[in-house]
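Hello forum,

I keep getting stuck at the same step: I have a sequence, I want structure tokens, and every attempt I make locally crashes halfway through. Rather than fight my setup again tonight, could one of you with a working pipeline run this one for me? It's a single chain of 497 residues.
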Amino acid sequence: MNSKSKNIKFYYEKVKAILLVCLIILCIVQIGILWSNQSYSSPISLFSNSNSKNSSPVSIDDTKGEYLLPYRIAISTGFDGEHYVIPNGSKEYTTLWNGARQYIDQALETKPQKIQPFNEDDWGTLVANKPYTFEFKTQIPIDIIKWTLNMEDSEGEGLSGIYKLVICPDDSDNSYADTLYVRDDKNIYIYSINSAKNDILSYSVFNEIYTKQKSDINSKSYQMAIEKYRKFEISKDLLSVFSGKRQDSYPDFICEPISGLDKEEYSYDDFYDMALDLFGNARIDYDFDVDVNGSVVFKKADGVYRLYKNSILEYKYTGNQTNIEELNVLEAYKKALSYLLESRSQNDIMSNITVYLSSIDIKQGSYIFNFDYSISLGEENGEVPILLKDYKIPNSDNQLLSNGISIEASSKKVISFKWLALKFYVDNNIENYEWSFVDMYSKMYDKYSELKNEFSAKDFGIYYVLKYPQMQENIITPSFVLFTKDGVYDILMEANK
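Reply #2:
Ran it on my machine without issues. Output:
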């Protein structure tokens, strides 16, 4: 073979190689596009969809404080005086809670000056007389408090947790020392703070906030149960309208299910939209299916999600089952909170929702952390909480979901996750409501026969109550909700005509 023939063959082979490489690249590009636009089960996505929601990593250390919030902060001018509830999410709420955090940090560096058994009347009198009160929805274990507030392990000795706090600067009942009163499920712990930093909750701060509340036409003073109903079975620190009436304005709100969930049959695009709504870019990690009950199923390597028709999203861990693990509430809480942060980062469903830790239940080897929703009405207007009523999880045991989010976790992993995956929108329609505690209780007394056998009240509130399927057919308006020792009762409020 002459040199000319060899050169022709060489160039021919070179062209073939280049064409082959181009074909391979073209195939990879095409596969990447198909994976990005249609597949939810591939382990990686070569090309992200331009409409996908981004799920950037969220640091648990940067955001852990957002999930340890008191659901109620109140200020008081004294017994039989004025009592104001500070709007959640407002500038004043943030100022007071930041101050309380510093008080807790300073106080728990020392041992309590005094410990006394909890007494309902004594606590009610204390709350009525002192300027600042902070309430969680449940007792928060001290290990979670210390981790969230970046405290030392040695602090808080002898304290099991914090349920409610009372703070009094220059406390005349304690030699004019700045004083922190902590209530857990059994005792009241009294801490003296000789030098609170920067006068964070001084009386000048109190007077500034009090003056603003008093001058705000939308802010009304409450009475306290200890001042009106000392002889009745009612929480003595309960704030309400016990005499006279109160005028409040509340917007209607609308809840919307995940895209496509209301259909009888699902197309490929419907599955795609639902996965995008729930998981954002992480949708590529899941295979999808429909089970025998018509629930949408999303599967990944070690877990299964089910999206039910009533908008409950349920996750169950299906990986290797280990022996019963040693109970550690802080490590379990970290796992639950990390999972919650990851879920929220993947979508914008809860963008206008604040989440409050409302209860902690213990199981064999795990804990269940329940979180409640509150809808933001704007900084000055605070929030209105959401209550789930008779909201069944459509599985074999027909359990009820009573909270917006419920996470079961051990110290090693998240075992299950239940979430009311609804989008909430505040409507432009705003109605005025006139009410008092006595009037609303009287209406409940007529509606619920079981209340005729008791008069008790642990707490009350104005809530948006979600019941399925009614919530999918109507605009949601506010309800008066009463919590007693035996149950939870609600009644719709009537707008002024």
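The chain has ten helices and 25 strands. If your local run keeps crashing, start a new thread with the error log.
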